[in-house]
Specification:
0% of the residues lie in helices and 51% in strands. The protein is built from no helices and eleven strands. It is globular and about 40 Å long.
């Protein structure tokens, strides 16, 4: 069974930065399209960023473009989400997932496997 584990969440001040990490056990991420989703309180889960197996990346909500970036660490075999200039509206539980593709729009239905999520709280 494919397993994903996120880490790096926590409390951060508005305008600050945070790096989330997703590590897989039992498989190598380089063979999968990997994505980050988030779910804010009372809202639906939404796709945030995606990285395809060939290295191409997408950022989905206009609100994160230019601030968030998905990248892969070959050495650690992790898929990470760099979050810069965070805002209170970025507060959510962030999940990594393997996905069928990074097609727009990226919806939860595209995901094969999910991690347990890591909470991010941005204080104003």
């Amino acid at each position: 069974q494919l397993r994903l584990a996120e880490s790096g969440g926590g409390l951060v001040e508005s305008g600050g930065s945070l790096t989330l990490s997703c590590k897989a056990s039992t498989f190598e991420m380089r063979f999968f399209n990997m994505a980050w989703f988030r779910q804010a309180p009372g809202k639906e889960r939404e796709g945030v960023s995606c990285r395809s197996v060939n290295g191409r990346t997408w950022d989905y909500p206009d609100s994160v473009k230019g601030r968030f970036a998905i990248f892969r660490s070959e050495v650690e075999d992790t898929t990470n989400l760099q979050m810069n200039n965070v805002k209170p509206e970025d507060t959510a539980v962030y999940y990594c997932a393997t996905v069928k593709s990074c097609d727009v729009p990226l919806t939860p239905d595209s995901a094969y496997h999910w991690g347990q999520g890591t909470p991010v709280t941005v204080s104003s």
